[in-house]
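Suppose a classmate hands you a notebook page containing two proteins, each written out with its sequence and a corresponding row of structure tokens. How would you begin to make sense of it? This section walks through that situation. The first entry is reproduced here exactly as it would appear on such a page.
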Amino acid sequence: MENATALARAAVLRILLVERRKHAKLTQAQLAKKLGWEQSTISMLESGQRRIEVVEFMALADTLDFDPTEIIRQLRATKAIHR
């Protein structure tokens, strides 16, 4: 079973990727086309139905023109919220 911090980081990663895509003014379909992926892949990554692999993360960083290390720094700072 996953720990709460890992789940929180996965959620933050999804939010950050959606923000980067929207900042680039791309739809899921447009981004998928640029990457040579199916639109459903982008949808599954953004919704959390599918985990992102490192090579996919790097392709997204290149295509959306963001520094992957900045995202990693933000994720490392993410802690679980205990209720």
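The notebook's second entry, a different protein, reads as follows.
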Amino acid sequence: MVTVVIRRVACLVICGATSRGAVAFMNHWPIDRTEMMRAAVIVSTELMEEPTPSRRTLAYPLTQVVSDIDDTLKSSGGLEVGGVSLGGIDVQYDRGDFYPGVFQFMWELSLYSVILNQRQYEQYNNVEEEEMQLSPPKVAVLTARAEEFKVALEIKDKSKLAQAFRTTGESSVIYPTKDWGIGPVLYGSVSEWIIQHKKGHRKFNNFERLLEQDPTGQIMQYIYVGDTGELDQEAGETMLREYPEVVQAVFLHVVSSDPPSSFPPSGLYIPPPKLINGRPLVFFRTYVGAAAKATQLGLMECDGLVRVVEEAEMTLKSLGVPTGNSKWIDLERDIDEAYRTLGEVN
């Protein structure tokens, strides 16, 4: 059997596996189609002779989501001490609030490679509903939080953050598991809190440490999720430049230190996506918008996108956020994009 190692942008363009949704996404890139093709060739597909998929072999590498914490998973509230940010700049959500749909988004990204391997296993082994016993890789965390303050800032198993991850995996309507949640946590240091511009470099160095778990890149590939407030863009772009063969995409949550009341009627400006070494760097305002982009790129299935929409809506309703609030305005705008995406892909 010939297995295509997941190099998604290249596969979409070169292998003729382009869905209508992916075409729609490509049309938004600020480069022409010739440049898209050239960039895709850089990360060309590799064909390898592999045995028929079994419980011991993978047709596709597994996807590990790598995430920041503050202003990515939960809001920093824009808190500062002595002019130094304590984790981020976002003031739309209260400090400590989890962003609607964030855990479902990361679950769906982590799960998709398991779904692909399961389908391949069933197809080549002529079996149905017999699982390969794969679990989605746990989410790795790259944080600017200082390791010197780990006693106070450590993410413990009983923390609300860890519990939210576990609950998402356990309550999933497909492939529920108790084995998914927070995996390795790689911290920053006090020096990056003092000298802020070092944060991006430290996160990239920590990502290189994470790569040591699978130096070949044949078992694990990565999607980085960060935000625009703490030099995550610098870290993410460096990942794409240096490791395009294993980093599938970078998603950056657009946050602002300005109050939502100062935003124009069209909402906070969201930069257009771009390619680095043939890999996508995507900016988003809500996790529904991120899920729509992921679906367009072939990193998430349509049902997964629907589940992210449902979870995000349910979260805002449960918080009693009033209609007309900027949180609903942002979410509804991205829900519209999600439904357009579903129409294009289907």
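A careful reader of the second entry would note: The longest strand covers residues 139-146.
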